[in-house]
Amino acid sequence: MFGNDIFTRVKRSENKKMAEIAQFLHENDLSVDTTVEVFITVTRDEKLIACGG
């Protein structure tokens, strides 16, 4: 289950990665919480599959 999953810490200042997170959340009818400074993302086969912060 977790063999190909990559967990990454993303700081709010990492604009490119934050744009990917915002797009992922938007696709799932969610939005970025402006109070969160660090996100944890999970990617599988180079595709973002989960995030939290």
Automatic annotation (TrEMBL):
**Which keywords does this chain's UniProt record carry?**
Ligase, Lyase
EC number(s) reported in the record = 6.2.1.22
Q: Which residues form the signal peptide?
A: none
Under the GO molecular function aspect, what terms does this record hold?
[citrate (pro-3S)-lyase] ligase activity; lyase activity
Q: What stretches pass through the bilayer?
A: none
- In terms of domain of life, where is this protein from? Bacteria
Q: What is this protein called?
A: [citrate (Pro-3S)-lyase] ligase
Organism of provenance: Shigella flexneri
